[in-house]
Description:
Layout: E1 3-7, H1 11-22, E2 26-30, E3 50-52, H2 54-60, E4 63-66, H3 70-78, H4 81-84, E5 88-91, E6 96-98, E7 104-107, H5 114-121, E8 126-129, H6 136-139, E9 151-155, H7 158-170, E10 178-182, H8 187-192, H9 197-204
Amino acid sequence: MSSIGILGAGRVGTTLAHALTAAGHHVTVGRRGHDAGIPAASPAEGPALRYADHATTARTADVVINATPGDSALDRLTALRAELAGKILIDVSNATHDDADGLPGDLCYPGSSLAEHLQAALPDTHVVKTLNTMLFMVMTAPGSLTQPPTAFLSGNSDEAKKTVIELLNDLGWQSDWIQDLGDVTTARATEATILLVPHILRRNGFTPFAVTLAR
């Protein structure tokens, strides 16, 4: 069992928090302007979640997941450099400038990636990029699709990626559905796939899907 801190209390962060809690992990959800009076989840949503501010969440966790908006994540996480030192940081976000309809338009870091910028800004942290090539509901229910999806991994530390793979297994990802692409520079490829998403959503609506490597 790991102590996991999730930065971001939106749909992505909350979905991951419920699933990881159900898998037996000690999970804290970090949110800005933390309010101790935030209501617990209803039984239909799963186990009640623990909340704290971002700094406390990062400092007290073994593994931290970035589920904050990608366009502002770099500044937010750089401010937590001390709290994230020595930790594994799993980045599941995509950094984009949105179009007028609110869907992703352009990349914030063309020719690079958010994961690479995070690793450069947090040299004492092991950044691993994953789960950013699918709609959020697939992250915790990969078996719900009609064919197996792929979870791609990018990161410089093989040990950190091994830990992330174990967490993915806890979320229902079979080992042969997980593809290690290599070091953190490979994240620029998976982050670029976000540019497919608005076109798929405009044609098919908010139907769960993921990028899949067929073999």
